[in-house]
Structure formats: C-alpha cells, structure tokens
Design brief:
88 residues, 58% helix
Length: 88
C-alpha cells in the first residue's frame, strides 16, 4: 500500500498538483486488506482553487489519469517481481 500510495503521489506531482505527502492511518476500511489499499485525497473542495479544479472536466480527467498511471505502474512492478520469485 505504501508503494502504491507513493506512485500515486508521484503522478500527482508530475501533473502539477501539490503534494501533502503519504501518510499511514489505521482506517477500518483499509485494515487487514489482502491487497494494496489506499485512500486518495485529491484536494479540498473548501479551497476555491482546488474546488474549481476538481469540479472541472479537465481536472477530473487529469486526476483519474494520474491514478490510472500509478496503478498500472504498480501492477507492472508487482508482476515483474512475481516473475522473478517464481523463476527461482
């Protein structure tokens, strides 16, 4: 989960968004998950600039694409690691 969260944060930064860092929390919804689980905070709607970005079609597209790229990258890294282990 930390690796996936870091990849998502990196994609947000590359797309020009402000990083507030990756943090861990014991949310019940994430606890004891058998797969990576992250909650993505995309911004604050109470901030006029972020709210406008998140409400715009372009902002939603940019945010969704950043998350998609991070998940695809995580999957690629995971599968590469799995192949390496299974080949031994």
């Amino acid at each position: 989960s930390q690796a996936l969260a870091g990849l998502i944060e990196g994609e947000f930064v590359r797309s020009g968004r402000h990083s507030r860092g990756v943090k861990q929390a014991g949310f019940l919804v994430l606890w004891a998950a058998s797969m990576p689980a992250v909650l993505v905070e995309t911004g604050f709607v109470s901030n006029p600039e972020e709210g406008a970005f998140l409400a715009s079609e372009d902002g939603q597209e940019q945010t969704a694409r950043a998350i998609f790229r991070a998940v695809a990258s995580y999957r690629e890294q995971y599968e590469r690691g799995t192949r390496l282990v299974s080949a031994q």
